[in-house]
């Protein structure tokens, strides 16, 4: 084992010397798997700028990306849940526009909700790291009415393309998202309770690239992984004023269990602990329902805050069998407090409703803008 480490050390040193010669001509020397593993896992902090692999040769860039995988999965979960909750709001307004809860729930309905969002994170996973992601997808669902209770199921799928940059380390990630949710919505007069239970999968294909112009080397590798999530949510609300303008305060809890499969970059493996995340949305909805001869129009604004508890950081074990060395590091995947705002308008005619909405989701290190269109048909 000692001879293998000595050999790895000598190989890394020789490559760095050769890389430095390449760097004089603005060329980067391609680094081999074992040499990169040695540079990544053998660091000597405090020796000055440019000499610590932990700071300059990719350790934090590689590890912090693990937080991005979990954060990407969390964004997909949030987008799917928002589409579902907005759909349930539309159904609730159908009840309000009808002659009593029982009459309004007559009729099975189906819905579709395409969406797009752009997310920017700065310093979330690690100070100095920047993540940008663009996502698009759609949810599909079916509702079954039982007097003042509606139960249903939804399937949502989407695609995310993201880039995470930390110093000269860059990871490009293409993710496909699939989710299944069962939900229920109960209403009695001004009181309403709704929630759901879901499972989702994020399939990641990503490419890690590390450059170092000081030492004149580059390292590039592609790999893949999956992130699984189990979620549930329960939210209660009460409409306190429903004449000219209705005001509906609400509060609830959302939970997500997130687990990312172990993966390898070259000869280095990354294995993270699962995360348990609890979110507590507290907010108020303000709007008005215009109803005229079967045609309805409902503008609405929604403001909320969302404290977050649980495993907000991802703990990752990094191991190389080639040199027999392991490290453990942590990266933040979510902030501890968020604020949300959305505006939208729903137009309906008998059993058909169309909703256009804009959402903003923000925190200390993250901002997200999203638009969605929901079509609901009750037959």
Brief synopsis:
The protein is built from five helices and 20 strands. It is an alpha+beta fold.
Key terms for this structure?
single chain; 379 residues; 21% helix; 59% strand
Series of secondary-structure elements, N-terminal to C-terminal: HEHHHHEEEEEEEEEEEEEEEEEEE
The coarse overall form would be elongated
Number of strands: 20
Q: State mean pLDDT (0 to 100 scale).
A: 78
What's the gyration radius in Å? 25 Å
Strand coverage percent: over 45%
Distance between the termini: 71 Å
Q: Which structural class fits the helix and strand makeup? A: alpha+beta
Total of helices: 5
Uncertain spans: 9-25, 43-57, 98-105
* Biggest sheet layout: 16 strands, mixed
The helical percent reads: 10-25%
General description of the model:
The chain has helices at about 1-25, 35-40, 55, 60-95, 100-105, and strands at about 30, 110-120, 130-145, 150-165, 170-190, 190-210, 215-240, 240, 245-260, 265, 270, 275-280, 280-285, 290, 295-310, 315-320, 325-330, 335-350, 350-360, 365-379. The protein has about 375 residues and is α+β, with helices and mostly antiparallel strands. A hairpin with a 3-residue loop joins β8 and β9 (about 245-260). It is elongated, with a radius of gyration of 25 Å. The N and C termini lie far apart (about 70 Å). Residues about 10-25, about 45-55 and about 100-105 have low confidence and may be disordered.
Task: Describe the secondary structure blueprint for this structure.
Layout: H1 2-24, E1 29-30, H2 33-41, H3 53-56, H4 59-97, H5 101-104, E2 109-122, E3 129-146, E4 149-166, E5 169-188, E6 191-212, E7 217-238, E8 241-242, E9 246-260, E10 263-265, E11 268-272, E12 275-279, E13 282-287, E14 290-292, E15 295-310, E16 313-320, E17 325-332, E18 337-349, E19 352-362, E20 366-378
Parallel strand pairs: 1-7
Antiparallel strand pairs: 2-3, 2-20, 3-4, 4-5, 5-6, 6-7, 7-9, 8-9, 9-12, 9-13, 10-11, 11-16, 12-15, 13-15, 14-15, 15-18, 16-17, 18-19, 19-20
Helix pairs in contact: 1-2
